[in-house]
């Protein structure tokens, strides 16, 4: 009966001795390193200055001799040197980093890793309304839809480039995981635009298959309010998208046609969209316009002073937050001298 | 007793005389009718010299004036208005009180004829016998154009008139302006050109853009305009640009729920899908390499890529707010501008090096000299009052007064070349700049009114 406790004690002592640090120094396997490497940033990009640090649950690194190797060259060493900066090449090539704990001129622990920087760009645009062949970005107005595209440059474990269709994309909107648009090869996603006066944070993590590297990126997309622009519709030259009508403006003609353009109106691809409602006033009087071309107004100043205060408001049938307004004071030069006529303009519709 | 012989004799004589009278009357009648027909034909423009677009006011204005000047209605009127005794008006009075009284006259025709002569005396000659050399800064076409480009290996600048779609050639050295096409394409909003002068243009007649390519038909006569053979390039094109060296173009085309970068021959033949993208807002450049740059907005990070023919996107510039770029057509140099509330311009001659420049403008207002000198010319706003330059400029809500600067990318320096506002009191908002192969002439469009200007670089 007393034999059992003795045997248990013997086994315990043997286990304790074999697990002691002294024994580990001679028999610890390097494939199961007691060292851990930490990187900041966690997903570095080419050209980044990487902060590398080493910790251990087994050793007190602050009291040990640490040797640092970058691409097999000793770059720094010293007692307690647990952290070094490493400049990653802008080319995006892989960088080999090793940390070694040495004692009595012998390596007692080592850890190696290859840092393969990856990048991902997040590009976006909206489906809001702009003039034909507009050279600027379609900005995001509330109720529009944003398309985001991730362009990642990843490598596999052998340093070969990973095709975009092979990587896995994980999308987040304001911190919430979007499972429906995430997955393998899903390099683009579509989201609702931010609310009025707000902004959304879109984040993507792109992971190469089979242990390859990883990249992540976040962007902030602001919402913009649609604005109204007034352009002249010339019978010869068409709509003068190159120059808005200023307030005030003077025209030598006695009759002009103008169009009201709600720049960045949401989910509208042309002015000829029944979702847009136009209300025109000229000199405080509502104008009856052609229902087929509600964005177009023709003003004739015959037998009038030529002064026209044009007011336009545009709203969206399905977006109550959209209400763009504009006012322009226009002077047309026809009819000068026709004094005594109280009619400041003769409204007309364009057909 | 009747003398039948004498009667017959007198009858024969009378008959001959009558015959002559009838013939004479018929001749006079025919002549009168011929004159009437000729007058009607002249009124329709037959035999009238083709109006020249050489007037600085543009061909449309010249056509109106020439119609007055070429009416040859004889003058027979009472005295006209006593306006002035200066040379032009003296002639005006002389026309009104001229001594020609033969034939039918009309007062309206008199006034038109005289007025035409008066206007032509005041305005410059449309086709002067010896054309003076254009000034250094030349307002080459006064009405709106759709686009312009230098024809390779010539001194010709070709442009498309916006109202009519007619093509014109401007000899920048002699100042001669010649219309070379007679196909009417109304409301041509934008145009770009292949090196041989073939055109790609877009119109917006029914509310949706229509893009077409055009090639001039070969004509046995080099003096008369040719027809422009057009090919509809189909719907869904959101951006299009010709190659700087070959007769091909690149376009961004809708492809289901995404977009494709396509290369094609000039008539859209042999389309090749180069790359795919989920986005449509791109600026395309096609010289020695294909460069895509995101359509920019003030303060929004933009990206530019070199795209290989197998669709690989390699970043050139990343995360620059309000990014616009201008790749060199044949070298690896790149002009890079940003707009984050203020404008900045830098130049990159290699991937590792970017040098900031002292001028504040955007790459859209610059053009590279197409040789190895790495010289560029940039139009720089002399003052900026907006903190949202790109957004407002692209919408047409903002116009600038620009001066031309010469940028040396190798030295990373810039020097003032010419200021239209300071030197000539002209305010020009430069857009769509172009340069000839020899680097001697710049052309550009004034964004205020889309008129065409040419600047001789060396004074």
Strand runs of chain A, count: 25
Mean pLDDT across the residues of chain B is 84
Query: Low-confidence runs of chain A (pLDDT<50, min 5 residues)?
Result: 15-31, 335-351
Structural class of chain A: mainly beta
How many individual β-strands of chain B? 28
| SSE series of chain A | HHEEEEEEEEEEEEEEEEEEEEEEEEE
TL;DR of this structure?
The complex is a heterodimer of chains A (351) and B (459). Chain A is mostly beta strands. In chain A, 7% of the residues lie in helices and 47% in strands.
Question: Topology of this structure?
Answer:
The complex is a heterodimer of chains A (351) and B (459).
Chain A lengths: L2 H16 L2 H7 L7 E6 L8 E8 L8 E6 L2 E7 L3 E5 L7 E9 L2 E10 L3 E8 L18 E9 L14 E6 L2 E2 L5 E2 L3 E5 L6 E9 L6 E9 L4 E8 L3 E2 L9 E3 L3 E9 L12 E7 L2 E2 L9 E5 L6 E10 L2 E14 L13 E3 L3
Chain B lengths: L3 H41 L14 H11 L17 H10 L10 H16 L14 E5 L3 E6 L5 E6 L5 E5 L5 E3 L8 E6 L5 E5 L6 E7 L11 E5 L4 E6 L5 E8 L2 E8 L6 E6 L4 E5 L3 E5 L6 E7 L5 E9 L2 E4 L6 E6 L3 E8 L2 E4 L9 E3 L6 E7 L7 H6 L7 E7 L4 E6 L1 H5 L5 E6 L5 E6 L4 E6 L3
Antiparallel strand pairs in B: 1-28, 2-3, 3-4, 4-5, 6-7, 7-8, 8-9, 10-11, 11-12, 12-13, 14-15, 15-16, 16-17, 18-19, 19-20, 20-21, 22-23, 23-24, 24-25, 26-27, 27-28
